[in-house]
Specification:
Shape: elongated
Number of helices: 6
Number of strands: 0
Number of domains: 1
Oligomer: single chain
Strand content: under 5%
Length: 115
């Protein structure tokens, strides 16, 4: 398999930036990996912030008896509507752009390196 194809697959399927590291572009790869990690960490933080709402709603429901699965799903969906904050939107875009950019960069850098 050609090195630039392998690099693009690593960046796209394993970790954005890993393909750049394989191609010897360690600085660019490291920056992409750090930015992707930052974006994922912000998304996880945003999701964790929803837990108190879900727990509070479940406790209220449990006071009236057993909670059925459809109601749990409904509460979870309600909590997801709390999202779409600037943090979530920008973090999602950061991860997507790092992912797509690392694939494109790995393909182009690999072709230049090959030529």
């Amino acid at each position: 398999m050609q090195k630039h194809i392998k690099a693009a697959l690593l960046s796209g399927l394993v970790l954005p930036g890993l393909g750049q590291v394989v191609l010897g572009k360690r600085w660019i790869g490291s920056i992409i990996i750090i930015l992707t990690g930052l974006g994922v960490a912000c998304l996880v933080y945003s999701i964790v912030l929803r837990f108190p709402f879900i727990i509070d709603q479940l406790i209220l429901e449990l006071e009236h008896g057993m909670v059925e699965m459809p109601r749990i799903v409904e509460i979870t969906i309600q909590s997801s509507k709390m999202g779409n904050s600037l943090l979530e939107i920008s973090s999602t875009w950061l991860v997507v752009l790092c992912w797509a950019g690392s694939i494109i960069h790995a393909l182009l850098a690999g072709r230049k390196h090959k030529a």
